[in-house]
Every structure is written in structure tokens, then in C-alpha cells.
Amino acid sequence: MGILMVTGIEGARNCAAVVSAQLGMEVEVVAGRKAALAALRQREFSAVVVDETMAECDPAAAETIWEHANMAIPLQVNFALSGAARLIREIRAALHRREREQALARRAAAAAIEAELKGTVAGLLLHSQLALNGSEVTSPIADRLRMVASLAGNLRRQLSAPIEVRGTTAA
User: Fold this and answer.
1) pLDDT tens, residue by residue, 95-152
2) Coil, helix or strand at residue 28
3) Do 40 and 48 contact (CB within 8 A), yes or no?
């Protein structure tokens, strides 16, 4: 994914070339709201950088751009005061922040799913063992209950193993 720069300032294409070279990402420059919305309809972007001057002069246009940016990181920068180096720092910081947030969200989701699965497996194991201890269980049903208990026990051991051992990463 690339970066969308929305600005009418002279020299924006030169700035975009420097940003592209430094970040190793494609940078598309558009001059206004209509062009920005057309670009956002055509493809996804990692970040959308809107010129602060444009955002202050036409806040409704900036808001429309943010609404259509989907998962892109919204940034508002004063291109008249910020050089390419500062723009690169801000974009890089925003991208790193997004990566950290996504990693934390993935870990939280994995922990929640794991906790839910552990509870379900524990209940399945308990109830299958209780059913096996009942006196009126026929042999074919007992065999199936033992298989369920065995599978639940295996799943419980797998869920108890560290995440790296199971072949997935936490990040």
C-alpha cells in the first residue's frame, strides 16, 4: 500500500519523491477533495496526508476524505512549514504506532479466544468423564465418550502449550 498526499502546494511532487525514496512506499499526490476521493475509491492507502491549510479552509472536504480513507492512517500536516524530513518522521511514527496497535489487538483477540476455548474444553472434558462414570453407560457409548474425553484432553494440552510451540506467533 502507498501514501496519499492531498495538497495543492507547489513542490509537492518533489516532496513525494523524497518520501517515497525514504519510506520505500509509493506516494500519490492529488490537489483536492475530488481527486482524493477518486484515488481512495481506486485503491487502499496506508496513510492519507492532508494539507492543514486545505483542512482549515474546507473542513467538510477534509472530513469527507477521512470518512473515505478506510483503514488508512489520517495525518494532517502543514506542508508550507514542514519539510520532507519532518513529514517522513510523522508518517513513519504513525505507521509504527499502527503496527504496535494492531499487534496488541491481535494478542488481545488471541488471548480472549484462547480463554474461551479453554473453558469450553474443560467443560467438555468434565462432562464426558462424568458421563463415563455413570453406571448405565453401554459399551459403544462408553467407547465414544472415552474418545471425546481423549480428544478434549489433547486439545487442552495443546491450548496449555506456549504459543510459539504451537507454530503461531503472538505478534
Assistant:
1) 999 999 999 999 999 888 888 888 888 888 888 888 878 767 778 888 888 888 888 8
2) strand
3) yes
Residue-wise pLDDT for 52-108, tens only, equals 988 898 899 999 999 999 899 999 999 888 888 999 999 999 999 999 999 999 999
Closest CA to 5 of 70, 98, 59, 84: 84
CB 51 within 8 A of CB 9: yes
Question: Which grid cell sits at 72?
Answer: 488508512
- Residue type at 147 in one-letter notation: M
Reported pTM = 0.69
Strand 2-6 to 27-30 pairing: parallel
- Please state the length of the chain: 171
Residues near 51 by Cβ (< 8 Å), separated by ≥ 6?
A: 6, 7, 8, 9, 76, 77, 78, 79
